[in-house]
Amino acid sequence: MVYTAARVAAVPFMPVSIHTSEEDHRHFAEVLADGDRETWVAEVDGTVVAFVVLTPTWVNDLFVHPDQQRAGLGSALLAVVKSLCPDGFGLWVFESNTPARAFYARHGLVEMERTDGADNEERAPDIRMEWRPVAAA
């Protein structure tokens, strides 16, 4: 599973997942069935290697398999998000996940809020980032 592989590879930048693989599978089955969220995937040779889950204003998840990172898939998925959310969108990223924060900043997202993590499952400090389109001059 892309999510599990990406989370494991991201340690120590991300906290260790508090869920089992079975719980992750159940969660993403529910996500795919949720009509309020949209999921886009990137495939290589018929295998899903990256995905993004979003609503009209929010990115819930964006993960790329470690073997496919730095191949442009995350950038391509973020471009899809920008086209689907032309008025902007937000997301949360763990404060410790400096590679993800740098990726999002390169793509024009800015830090809007920092928390101590009390409201996320991992209880790890996080940052809300947002992307807003540049107004035409």
UniProtKB/TrEMBL annotation:
Q: Which residues form the N-acetyltransferase domain?
A: 1-134
Source domain of life is Bacteria
Q: Does the keyword Transferase apply?
A: yes
**InterPro entries, from UniProt?**
Acyl_CoA_acyltransferase, Bact_Acetyltransf, GNAT_dom
Which keywords does this Swiss-Prot/TrEMBL entry list?
Acyltransferase, Transferase
Q: What is this protein called?
A: N-acetyltransferase family protein
Residue ranges of the TM segments: none
Q: Record keywords: Protein biosynthesis included?
A: no
